[in-house]
Structures are given as C-alpha cells and as structure tokens.
C-alpha cells in the first residue's frame, strides 16, 4: 500500500487537475476522463464504473464518492439527505457497515482525508465537488455525515444547533452543492444554450427557476428550470418577459412600446412571440403546471 505522502500527493494532483479544467469553463467531467487520470506515470481512475465508492488498490482509504444520475421524476437508488444538524448524509454501500467500501470510507473519516464527490449530471457526466470531508459515521442509519467546506467541519453531527446557525449551514449546502448541481443539470438538458435566444457562451448562462426557490414547487429540479442568458434571466425574474405554458415568449406591453438602444430592440422586444427551445429529453422539459403559475405572476405584473 502507498504511504501517507503518496496519498496526499495524489489527492492534491487530482484536485489541481479538476481546478484547471474548471478555469477554462469545463466544470463537467466525463466518466472516461476520470477513468484515464494519470499520476506519476500510473493510471489511477478517480471513479469506479460499478461502485459509488472509489478506493484504488494502492490506497488504504477511499478517494471519492459518487451520486448516480437519475432522470427527472425517477427516485435515486440512494437518497442522500440533510440531517437535523443541516449536514448532508451519504449512504453506506449496502447494509453491512463492515463492507470493504464502507471500511475504506471509514478510514478516510478517521484520518480526516479530503474526498472528491462526483455528482451525476447526465449518463456518464459528473459535476465534481471537492474537497469534502466525512465528519461522522452513523452506523445505525447506515450513513456517513458529509461536510462540504471548512465551516461545516466545525459542526458536531447530530448536535442541537439554533435556527440561525442551521440556516447558515443549509445556505452553505445550497451554495456548494444544490445550486451548482441544479445549474449543471439544467444547462446540460438545454444543450448549454439560452432557451430564448440560443446564446451558447456557458459563462453567460444561468439556470433560472420557474417557481422561485423557497416557494411551493420551487425545488431545484430540472422541470423547474430554464437555461437563460443573464439578460433574459433578469428580464424573466423582473417580469419584463414571460413564458406561456405553450412555450411562447411574451414581452410586457409597456416594454414593447419603449424606444431605447439595440439591446432592448433586438435582445428583448424581438423575442415577443418566439417559441423557446426545449430539452430533447421529455422528462427534462419545463413542467406545465409550474409555467402556468409563473405566467399568471407575469400577467399580474403586466
């Protein structure tokens, strides 16, 4: 087995490789790329094709965990949820706490080793979250407790925390996991282009909620999302434009009468009556009920 220094160098090199990818707007990584990672002349896959927990034979502790992609509306094989302390849980492999993969994760927990979390965005495509740490081992519930950053590592699992601190922990989880995963899944579903104007510059695209976060039906799921460029996202949020349940764009009447520069004319006014682009996967298309609710909000503003 490798010594601690080799383990540390491997994790650092993998993190640097993933960071360099993200800096050129390649935030997603494929299974093939993860399987071909090379370190110090040797191929050391960062992910396991068949298993959710990856422990290379050369290491004593787990290197990464994986959340498998499931289509919108389908239940995932394992449900990773937040506990009463606001921290996320990652389920064991199976029901045996002493399964070798669970033992490998337990060692990562006991030795305070950073892990990579690869979250499925589409079949064979993942959004990396790193570093993450295991800060608790809940054998009775067959799960580990996950911290997504240094601040969450300070929370004692299952501890009683006040409402303000819980909201802080949950906000970190949104920023570090839920929002990036929602954005990645929505952009992937819409082929990385604005549903209204087809702009394809990833850095200028957002995942817009149809029903705002925090309201009933406002969950961060793809059928509640639209890939929009930043201009059209802001216009949608401000009810400058709306999207009918039949997927046709409407621009507010008073905005259509305004006289301004070319951005208003070509970027907003010319979008009136245009049909939005839709994901090829039917299960990823905007939910009609949510569109109806959101469109009524737009009509009220108009």
Automatic annotation (TrEMBL):
GO terms for molecular function: endonuclease activity. Residues 194-243 form the HNH nuclease domain. Keywords: Endonuclease, Hydrolase, Nuclease. This is Putative restriction endonuclease. It comes from Micromonospora mirobrigensis.
């Amino acid at each position: 087995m490798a010594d601690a220094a080799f383990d540390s160098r491997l994790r650092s090199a993998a993190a640097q490789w993933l960071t360099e990818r993200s800096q050129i707007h390649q935030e997603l990584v494929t299974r093939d790329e993860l399987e071909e990672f090379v370190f110090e002349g040797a191929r050391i896959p960062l992910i396991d094709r068949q298993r959710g927990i990856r422990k290379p034979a050369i290491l004593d502790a787990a290197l990464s965990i994986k959340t498998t992609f499931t289509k919108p509306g389908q239940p995932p094989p394992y449900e990773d949820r937040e506990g009463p302390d606001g921290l996320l849980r990652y389920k064991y492999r199976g029901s045996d706490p002493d399964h070798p993969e669970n033992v490998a994760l337990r060692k990562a927990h006991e030795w305070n080793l950073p892990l990579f979390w690869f979250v499925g965005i589409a079949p064979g495509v993942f959004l990396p979250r790193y570093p993450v740490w295991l800060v608790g081992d809940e054998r009775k519930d067959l799960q580990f407790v996950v911290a997504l950053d240094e601040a969450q590592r300070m929370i004692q699992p299952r501890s009683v925390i006040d409402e303000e601190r819980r909201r802080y922990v949950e906000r970190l989880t949104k920023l570090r996991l839920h929002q990036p995963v929602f954005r990645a899944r929505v952009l992937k579903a819409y082929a990385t282009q604005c549903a209204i104007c087809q702009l394809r510059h990833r850095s200028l695209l957002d995942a817009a909620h149809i029903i705002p976060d925090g309201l009933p039906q406002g969950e961060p799921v793809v059928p509640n999302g639209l890939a929009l460029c930043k201009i059209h996202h802001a216009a949608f949020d401000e009810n400058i434009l709306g999207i009918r349940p039949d997927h046709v764009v409407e621009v507010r009447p008073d905005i259509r009468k305004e006289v301004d520069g070319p951005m208003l004319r070509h970027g907003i006014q010319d979008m009136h009556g245009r049909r939005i682009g839709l994901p090829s996967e039917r299960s990823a298309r905007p939910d009609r009920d949510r569109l109806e609710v959101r469109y009524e909000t737009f009509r009220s503003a108009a």
